[in-house]
Amino acid sequence: MPESPQTPPALETRNVNKWFGANHANRDVSLAVPKGTIHGVVGENGAGKSTIMSIVYGYLPADSGAILVDGRPVAVRSPRDALAAGIGMVHQHFMLVDPFTVLENVLLGAEGGVTLAAGMARARAELARLARDYGLEVDLDRPVGDLPVGAQQRVEILKALYRGAEILILDEPTGVLTPQEADHLFRILRALREQGKTIVIITHKLREIMELTDNVTVMRRGQVVANLATAGTSREELAELMVGRKVLLRVEKAPARPGAPVLEAAGLCVRDGAGVERVKGVGLTVRAGEIVGIAGVSGNGQSELLEALAGMRPLAGGSVRLRGEELADRPARFTARGLRALGVGHVPEDRQRVGLVTGFEAQECAILGHQGDPAFNGRFLMDRSALFDRCAAEMDAYDIRPRDPRLPAANFSGGNQQKIVLAREIERNPDLLLVGQPTRGVDIGAIEFIHRRLVALRDQGKAILLVSVELDEIRALSDRILVMFDGRLVGELGPEEADERRLGLMMAGVVDAA
Amino acid sequence: MEHAFLVALLLTDATVRVATPLVLAAFAALYSERAGVVDIGLEGKMLAGAFFAAAVASSTGNPWLGLLAAVAASVGLALVHGFACITHKGNQVVSGMAVNILVAGLAPTLAYAWFRQGGQTPLLPGEARLPQIHLPGVEALAGIPVLGPVLGPVYRELIDDANVLVWLTVLLVVATHWVFTRSRFGLRLRAVGENPAAVDTAGLSVTRLRYQAVVVTGVLTGIAGAYLSTAHGAGFVRDMTAGKGYLALAALIFGKWRPWPTLFACLLFASTDAVQVRLQGVPLPVVGVIPVQFIQMLPYVLTVLLLAGFVGRAVAPRAGGIPYVKER
């Protein structure tokens, strides 16, 4: 998109710097967003892309640098200033008050008077107009907490537009959406662009950048490394710029050579903590030497299924056979501990709460679940040097940084935390590995590494059951894909027949595989 | 029949009198807790209010100056709580407890230093206490045939000669309902107790809103304290709040942090207290006279039972007790 000198960019940052303690989170960040365009900001986790946008929105103060709107410098000291300058933001974690209705949420901070009645009437009329113009329909009188995430996101966009935003910043907007919801969002954003609004979208999903944006800014380690026109670049180039080296976006793997069944489950039922049945009669088989992926929109029972198979949740019914041996009727062995002993590894979905004790040192986290192993224990006390050596060896093998086994797990980045968990589980040489969201919140470089590891494990003849909400990941890794919807498996696809659209429709419960 | 009616009226009247400081304190906590600041220091603030009201009223002879002093002292303590919990993001329970312990010792010490009467203030004469509001027409109403004998006593016992703070409390309840459902301040207050980040990103100051809430709490607990020592009682005695601050907190939880149910809970607790007073030394059928100590336990036993079993799922404000720290 050519920049004419007559029309200054809608939004510009000049040499913005931001420090978090010793961490230089933004280093001379300069970028310009032309008016009426959709602008992508990409980078790995911790590249500083959310930081710079939080500064633009006044949520965080910059240490130095300037922000210009329509060519004029503005002092943005708080979100209030940003809103006054016409900047709105949709945060990654929605900034909504769940028990409030949609209307109350939109009104908060823009009430238009000491009492609410007049402002509510005005907001109702204005929101109806916005909904009509941009396809942003939501029920104004429903509590926000009852709405699906896609609708909650529309509420966030409405909030910004109601406050007169001309520039809309979206931070990782598609992380929680189904492909169909994401398409809906993209239609809304394009409609906004047509009306002359300026959109900035922060993401790490390169496909979205290519599909949606006009220009793209790439950030790495707090710095802008490139400003490009989207039409003149490619996913591969962007990935390389983000990581700083060549990255294989496709996982290279040979066809699977499945062997004997390792896990056979039939008629599995699982209830959640509130007693609601979340898994409703699931049957599946995972063979040695294959990766079976379970796709689904988060919340359709796949988490509960995985936890049940790992022995963390009691079964409400069904049978589970491990290498042909029935386990479901042997509750004493069907526990997290018993299953570990039988050669089941588990990389839980929530590594921070389930996979690690974040206050523990890395070397302690590296033996969680195996702390009773004689290899780490002396007669009375733990053998700290054995712990240290083992963890140091795993850190070398899995390239975990920083290489300090005594550092608390909380001080590692998401990708490195995940590698600690993965190393622990894989190095135990399990016959069956249960993996949940292996790359959630993990940067591209580490994703590549984790994917390669999982494929290598498969090629050693291990069985892997993968649960992920990232369709790209499911498609790249799985030898067979099962789709889960509302507690049931609604279809099975081979990776070559599983295109985005077909998977998306199955995940939404619209069609089955037949 | 006539007698039973009168007893019921007297009990109701006693309930209202006991409930008044409870309602004031519970509604005080309502503001603070709905804004996300847990306040376990109601007891201390009330006690400080009670002491300063009595001390100033005794020294100046003016109960209104006493009320003002009570509010000032209580707001001062509320600001200390706010400074610890909002500005410095300290632990709210610890800070509240500190206020309670501080005042429990400080008030009798100051009373001793000031009046030399063993940690009490002198008995207040009538004109140094907050007045009752005398309404006209008691005699006229009693003269009306048929209705008179029924409405007359109701009017005479319940409504006439109620303390000015009782009326203020009635006003407060209605006003609070309005504030929470209809006003901008209420909307923001509820929001900051549920999701302060949403308030922050909407361009509002979380700190300012929470301080506002805490100050309202201070004002109301101050009034509650003044009621105890200069309206209901006639002077300050050590530990005169006797756990009312905690009882108010229990009423708030029992009322699920909502104005009307909280009012109901306060009235329930107060009525057991009124019944308790009435039952002291009265022989009951079957069991006879119950020792006074057991009767006095009633309100507290009821509190424990209600909170343990009958509350159902009380959904506290989600951000309650959690200091607001910006995410990176």
UniProtKB/TrEMBL annotation, chain A:
Q: Which residues form a coiled coil?
A: none
Q: Which keywords label this protein? A: ATP-binding, Nucleotide-binding
Gene Ontology molecular function: any one: ATP binding
Q: CDD domains, from UniProt?
A: ABC_Carb_Monos_I (cd03216), ABC_Carb_Monos_II (cd03215)
What Gene3D superfamilies is this protein classified in? P-loop containing nucleotide triphosphate hydrolases
The family database entries (InterPro entries) matched by this protein are listed as: AAA+_ATPase (IPR003593), ABC_carbohydrate_import_ATPase (IPR050107), ABC_transporter-like_ATP-bd (IPR003439), ABC_transporter-like_CS (IPR017871), P-loop_NTPase (IPR027417)
Q: Where in the numbering of this chain does the ABC transporter domain appear?
A: 11-246, 263-511
Chaperone in keyword set: no
PANTHER family per UniProt:
CARBOHYDRATE TRANSPORT ATP-BINDING PROTEIN MG119-RELATED, GUANOSINE IMPORT ATP-BINDING PROTEIN NUPO
Q: What is this protein called?
A: ABC transporter ATP-binding protein
Q: In the record, what lineage is assigned to the organism producing the protein? A: Bacteria, Pseudomonadati, Pseudomonadota, Alphaproteobacteria, Rhodospirillales
From TrEMBL, chain B:
Matching InterPro entries: ABC_transp_permease (IPR001851)
Can you say where in the cell this protein is located?
Answer: Cell membrane
What residues form the membrane-spanning segments?
64-86, 93-115, 162-180, 211-234, 290-311
Record key words, sorted: Cell membrane, Membrane, Transmembrane, Transmembrane helix
Q: Does the keyword Membrane apply?
A: yes
| Membrane topology term | Multi-pass membrane protein
Give the main location.
membrane
Name of this chain's protein: ABC transporter permease
